[in-house]
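Bug #2210: token dump truncated for Ketoreductase domain-containing protein?
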Amino acid sequence: MESALSSPPWHSHLTLDLLLHVLSVTIFHPFLAALIPLCLRAIATPYNSPSFILTAAFAICVSLYRVLDDVNKRIAYGAPREINWEDEVVVITGGVGGLGGCLAEIFALRGVEVAVLDIAASNEDGEEKEGMNSYRCDVGNYEELERVWGHLVEELGTPTILINNAAVVNGKPFMEMRKEDVERTFGTNSIAQYHLTRLFLEPLLKAQKGGTLVTVSSVLAHLGASNLSAYTASKAALIAYHNSVTAELADMAPQIKTILVAPGQLDTQLFKNVRLRGWLQNFFGPVVAAGEVAVRIVEMIDKGEGGLVCLPAYARYIAWLGVLPVGVQRVLRGWSGVDGAFVVEKEDVGEGGKSPERQGKKGEG
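Reproduced locally. Full output below:
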């Protein structure tokens, strides 16, 4: 009885993403769109009939869109690289749980060499467990990161896939942010990715070997949010960093593909302090399962492609919010509740037995 009462209402599963998916595999699929005018011709509908002309034009537009979309991706990201999973070594930061944990499990089930760098791992020298090699590492500490990276390369070989996923979020009002909070957030979320990317790219560039670099940012990089000034700024820095690195690699090393991941709210520990919203807000901006995002990332890596992974649907177009009048932006922000969504909590005991303070949560995204 209790489980029935606590289960979400049926309409919570009805979202814009579900609607768009259904449309994409039905009337907006080229094959099914082409069937409509063919069926009309099967019942002897004249070529000059308005119904035949409209349905034929619709089928042509749908097919042309799919073709142009593929052409656009090829121009933007180049030809895909060949993937041989026997030769690939995957490194995932922040891979003990959440999105990183889902990715690590998927690769491990495939029998791929997987190394997880996480401050929650047991030791720096690596521990093999369930097909994964876990290394305790604070990626925000460069000396520790370089030392652990050396151990990793010795044991597993040169990494060919790097997923920069580790992040911390320190939810405090701007005026309560201390110097240490800001430095730790940027050190883990932004600066660590520079160091990791350099360690990752150096051997690949020398050997002219293919690889895949994945940057995990957030939709909040475009929006910003109250009580998350350092987190959102560090994630915005990642988008600029990713675009610059992608531009350099396109000319210097096209065999190295880059993927930018900018999801909305995930169902992970990192977002447990986010308030639930109304049905309409959930329809346009649903909470996304970390496993769903992980599957999209693995699919793109598996194809050897570069590109964007933005879930839910609004995350792909959120940058367009900036072209709207500021007043309209303000109204939409108020309606969405983004500035009041993150609940700042006080802990009973601070870290290391210090005085109580608001603590940030470690996670991904």
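Output looks complete on our side. The CA atoms of residues 30 and 63 lie 5 Å apart. Marking as cannot-reproduce; reopen if the truncation happens again.
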